[in-house]
Amino acid sequence: MRFLSDRDVRQVLNVQQAIHLVETVYQAKSENNTETWPTIFYDFEPGKADMDIKSGYLKSDKVFGHKTVTWFADNEAKQMPTLMGLITVFDAETGKTVGITEAAYITGIRTGASGAIGAKYLARKESENLLVVGSGNQAIFQIACALFALPTLRMIQVAGRDKAKLKQFVDAIPHRLQIEFGMNVEKVKFEEVNSLEQAVKRSDIIITVTASRSPIIKREWVKQGTHISCIGADMAGKQEIESSLISEACLFLDDQEHCKQVGEIEIPLKEGAITEGDLRGEIGDVILGKIKGRTSNEQITVFDATGMAILDIYAAKMALQAAEGKNLGVKSEI
Fold this sequence. Notes:
CATH architecture of the largest domain: 3-Layer(aba) Sandwich
Radius of gyration: 19 Å
Number of helices: 11
Structural class: alpha/beta
Strand order of the largest sheet: 9-8-7-10-11-14-12-13
Largest sheet: 8 strands, parallel
Strand content: 25-35%
Mean pLDDT: 96
CATH class of the largest domain: Alpha Beta
Distance between the termini: 7 Å
Helix content: 25-40%
Low-confidence stretches: none
Shape: globular
Number of strands: 15
CATH superfamily of the largest domain: NAD(P)-binding Rossmann-like Domain
CATH topology of the largest domain: Rossmann fold
């Protein structure tokens, strides 16, 4: 088996590949070629430290596996990564371990790809203004993937609670895009948000990547025609946008059953603000043309993406395959 470090994975998996990989998995799910198994969540300290174990099976690629990822907010003060984890990939024909990869980069870039794919297929084609709500680990991945998938973007605003940290993050975006993703962006302006309400009102696309357990995006702020990719809600009790907004939007999902349990639609469903009949379908069905996405420029569209282990497993499998050709990582017998 082969083990890939963060550095190894970064050498074999870029933004373009990640978007292609995620679209491939969404399509495979639509074609019933995947299985996603129940997720295990645990809060060591709510809002400060948690972990989850996600697992699944890609029938078409004959691989299965699991990811264990942890998030410890206090690690930042300790000069340690706040997000860490491992992905283990197995051969579905023999049960043999194919390899293990570091999970933080794969989690980040495939999650960024999900947010961008939601906007690619559901936002208005002429959309220019993107708002990213949240300035933590995930924000730079959302920005990088959105810029690749949405060439019409001209303004990217970022909102965050810590204003000093937010300014530092926004100022560093062009440099980080170049160093970490090999992207040179000249025609796009980056700004930190002073008023979330005003930022929402002028946005064509909103991507939320927070751990909020109470709505931070209000219905009256959102203009007609806006697309929202809700990425942060991945655990029971999390909610980033108001239920009244969900009830008025055209709703699309990455995995319907998982979203009902822990996604952005979980609480609106429990409150009765929406019913299962209000769910338009999964993004893989939109990509394959089985269902329609946006049908007018006035619709508000929402993509609820909780994240699926099959995305991590497929990305890890492809990274391991590419690394073998480049002789990257550490090879070992068990």
